[in-house]
Design a protein that fits this description.
The complex is a heterodimer. By secondary structure, chain A is mainly β. Chain A has no helices and nine strands. Chain A is globular. Classes of the chains: A mainly beta, B mainly beta.
């Protein structure tokens, strides 16, 4: 798996867009970028993933740079329930690789 | 609601007890997993099942015994555990272990285990 680097913590005001960066400068051509989050005491929740193109779903948007060395997860209108640790992972597919979450970014939504 | 249900959510057991954790997925997936998450440590893969067959045992002690009767159900049988086994045990599923690139894994809420 490519190594990913995320800031340890971020704050965002409620109702604003939360933009969480991730660096993955050694990512290979067939590695996807996945984002998960974990709210205290719960299992990790899948958010979104992408390979090259920007992706959007009901939870978030994923912006991947053209060189694929970094990406940004965007929560368009953050709520207090979005407070969690967010993990960025780069790998080909979960079935063949051991998942390592790393330390992630602790996002705190401020009322 | 992730489509992966784990029971019980919390379990306290003595070192001589025998207990089981249960996982059920409603996603029609063929692969299921057990992970362990200890405080301030990354996820540790324990077991992988694909089409009911165990395809990976990540050097897990024999006091943890998995069972997969069908593609929708996965159990983790616990026997003579140690206090250091206290952790969050996570079940997960994915469409196929050998699936196409971009395969996604979905986790259950986890079972908090405390060994006393």
């Amino acid at each position: 798996d490519a190594k990913t680097t995320q800031p340890p913590s971020m704050d965002c005001a409620e109702g604003r867009a939360a933009n969480l960066p991730c660096n993955h400068s050694t990512i290979s051509g067939n590695e996807y970028v996945y984002w998960y989050r974990q709210i205290h005491s719960q299992g990790p929740q899948y958010i979104i993933h992408g390979l090259k193109n920007n992706e959007t779903n009901e939870m978030a948007s994923l912006i991947i740079t053209e060189d694929r060395k970094s990406s940004t997860l965007i929560l368009p209108h953050a709520t207090l329930r979005d407070t969690a640790v967010y993990y960025c992972i780069a790998l080909t597919n979960f079935g063949n690789e051991k998942l390592t979450f790393g330390t992630g970014t602790r996002l705190t939504i401020i009322p | 609601e992730t489509g992966v249900t784990q029971t019980p959510r919390h379990l306290v057991m003595g070192m001589t007890n025998k207990k089981s954790l249960k996982c059920e997925q409603h996603l029609g997936h063929n692969a299921m997993y057990w992970y362990k998450q200890s405080a301030k440590k990354p996820l540790e893969l324990m077991f992988v099942y694909n089409f009911k067959e165990q395809t990976e045992n990540n050097s897990v002690p024999s006091r943890f015994s998995p069972e997969c009767p069908n593609s929708s159900h996965l159990f983790l049988h616990l026997h003579t555990l140690q206090p250091e086994d206290s952790a969050l045990y996570l079940c997960a599923s994915s469409q196929d272990r050998q699936g196409a690139l971009g395969n996604t894994i979905y986790f259950g809420e986890g079972s908090w285990l405390t060994v006393v």
